[in-house]
């Protein structure tokens, strides 16, 4: 099914709609929804990272924000909450999310021009990683990273961090997994995107 997306000028005036393929081929600005899931273990905050499916058209096999997706044509930012249900099986109202800001990201490769206004949120869940239900055609693994470790990684204060979680083949088969993650293993958002977002999460948790 064709996915239609609202597109915008550089000064973010709405100029129409385009297919996902056109958006990435022609470099139209568009809106995306990002939500960072936070879990606490013995009072220590961890963030959930997803590993993108190898068949994704952008950033396959890269570690990414817990949940992310495009807003379809006509959707409001609050409608992005569906991404949590679809990708992770988390069913919460939009009011359960805490806003972290909007970041404009421009990424270009040989075949894709991806210009996004990322609307970023966080959600602290009482659930464990094993309680989530990853969408297996979008996600190949879920991992936990200690928040302070992740901040140090993106600040360049340590070369890698240890992640633990599980890989998924289908909804019924999960395999425990531990990996050492470096900067190059993550989707190439700007360093500022990661450091500013993770520090904002830390501030919200410990104001």
TrEMBL record:
Residue ranges that the Swiss-Prot or TrEMBL entry lists as coiled coil: none
Domain of life assignment: Bacteria
Gene3D superfamilies xrefs: Nucleoside Triphosphate Pyrophosphohydrolase
GO molecular function: catalytic activity
Name of the featured protein: NUDIX domain-containing protein
Species this chain originates from: Alicyclobacillus acidoterrestris (strain ATCC 49025 / DSM 3922 / CIP 106132 / NCIMB 13137 / GD3B)
């Amino acid at each position: 099914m064709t996915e239609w997306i609202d597109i915008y000028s550089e000064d973010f005036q709405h100029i129409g709609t385009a297919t996902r393929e056109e958006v990435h081929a022609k470099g139209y600005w568009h809106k995306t929804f990002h939500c960072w899931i936070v879990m606490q273990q013995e009072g220590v905050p961890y963030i959930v990272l997803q590993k993108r499916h190898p068949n994704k058209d952008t950033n396959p096999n890269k570690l990414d924000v817990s949940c992310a997706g495009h807003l379809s044509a006509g959707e409001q930012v609050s409608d992005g909450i569906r991404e949590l249900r679809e990708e992770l099986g988390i069913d919460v109202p939009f009011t359960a999310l805490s806003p972290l800001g909007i970041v404009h990201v421009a990424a270009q490769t040989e075949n894709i021009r991806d210009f996004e206004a990322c609307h970023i949120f966080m959600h602290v869940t009482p659930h464990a990683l094993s309680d989530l239900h990853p969408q297996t055609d979008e996600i190949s693994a879920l991992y936990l990273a200690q928040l302070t470790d992740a901040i140090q990684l993106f600040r360049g204060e340590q070369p890698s961090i240890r992640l633990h979680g599980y890989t998924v083949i289908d909804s019924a088969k999960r395999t425990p997994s531990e990996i050492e993650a470096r900067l190059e293993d993550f989707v190439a958002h700007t360093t500022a995107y990661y450091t500013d977002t993770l520090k904002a999460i830390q501030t919200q948790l410990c104001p």
